[in-house]
């Protein structure tokens, strides 16, 4: 989560690393075992050229997918942020703005002080910002901070509570094992960070600003955090006040029905799920620990990195976590799923937890347990699970089977929804959020296995020239999985002309290999017509 910067903590060779000057001259080196950075001042806003900085790198955040680096500004304990983000798997630096799903020309907040005021709350244990004002409107050069943490990263006390007494005398108690708490209290241990929350008032904010989080495992989270539930509690006074101050608070983090849309806030999904809200007994109340093991189990023979990526319990790698409360489904799986037992369509999570949550240039499973519903997809714009797998099928096909199999009424559908595959329509005519979600889905094995026609390659080829860098990145990654030669030499950060040329080359490869004379599959005219209707409203997701 957060570690003191060192060559060991960085996922790249430091000496001589110089990211392209096109996005800011940044050079990293080691000096007596410590990381140093030379870069133009990222927060320069005045006239003239920014000052050249030479600063020790203090902290690094991230270890799985991306890394963000923070340097000492020399002003109290305020940390500055690199203007670039390092992608671990791709082994490359990209502009900070390209790492998020946001408009092509985003207005980035100053990096100085962001760690002190925002990241410290959840990326450390017992972090206290200790800044004179929590206002993000302060200029970078005016901000001061005396920030302190108990420990960097997520350490024992984050989940078990203050442990000094336990250390002195293990039998004295004083700490909590979340598995032994009431299910709701157990989930709230995770919800203290994994939720879309705000303080109840300025007094609470200032208390935590000075003294760090007041919530302790075992407490009732609502005493200390206002967890937004725009779908269930749209008229909550605190939510209305927040929206008056910040109209994007809900729009940029939730789907229109109140389902959380951004990764890292899975608690918001859990508490809207019937497995949580309608459980008849504590034993059957779904919590985060129903699926996740925060300590690797002794019986887990999987490679450490495999467990660490999602921290799934051994019992949750299949359908065990679901069948524990729904045993009848297990005994009549084919009758329930209407898919072959050993197929992806018979996995509980593929239908009830589809990949419709976005974060870190990828999608993750929705943690709001739902069933596929075409009416909800039409109303909210959130792609349904069926269409993210059967990417060659229109919504009329999906709605027909949902009615036939599960007696779910068919909604009224327009001609377009009835003829064009839903995934294709979202990918080309949808907004940036929809395009990113479908682009990620088109690179998954399940989509390739379920589709009878090759819609993935031409759609992904078309998205190589999307206005949003994040969408282009995801599309290229997915296309590389299904047709590696189609993205050879492509760079999602290249100029418009180069991207257009790459898109046309990839389309030509598809046309040549697909044999367009056989009358199957899409046509360029269909793709171009959909792209002409693309929803270009600005989309910014608050990851």
Derived structural class:
alpha+beta
Overall radius of gyration: 24 Å
Please report the total strand number as a whole number: 14
Helix proportion of residues, in percent?
25-40%
Stretches with pLDDT under 50, minimum 5 residues: none
Task: Tell me the count of domains.
Answer: 4
In summary, what is this structure?
Helices cover 34% and strands 10% of the residues. It has 543 residues and is an alpha+beta fold.
Describe the protein's architecture and organization:
With 543 residues, the protein is α+β, with helices and mostly antiparallel strands. The chain has four domains: 151 residues, no CATH class; 112 residues, no CATH class; 80 residues, no CATH class; 172 residues, no CATH class. Strands 1, 2, 3, 4, 5, 6, 7 and 8 form an eight-stranded antiparallel beta sheet that branches. It has a two-stranded antiparallel sheet with strand order 9-10. Strands 11-12 form a two-stranded antiparallel ribbon. A hairpin with a 4-residue loop joins strand 7 and strand 8. The longest helix is centred in the last third of the chain and has 19 residues.
Q: Helices, strands, pairings?
A:
Layout: E1 2-4, E2 27-31, E3 34-40, E4 52-61, E5 66-72, E6 79-81, E7 84-87, E8 92-95, H1 114-117, E9 124-125, E10 151-152, H2 156-160, H3 164-168, H4 183-191, E11 197-198, H5 202-211, E12 226-227, H6 237-245, H7 248-251, H8 266-270, H9 274-277, H10 304-310, H11 320-323, H12 327-331, H13 333-337, H14 348-352, E13 357-359, E14 362-364, H15 374-380, H16 385-389, H17 395-406, H18 415-419, H19 422-429, H20 432-441, H21 445-450, H22 456-463, H23 469-482, H24 496-514, H25 524-532
Antiparallel strand pairs: 1-4, 2-3, 3-4, 4-5, 5-6, 5-7, 7-8, 9-10, 11-12, 13-14
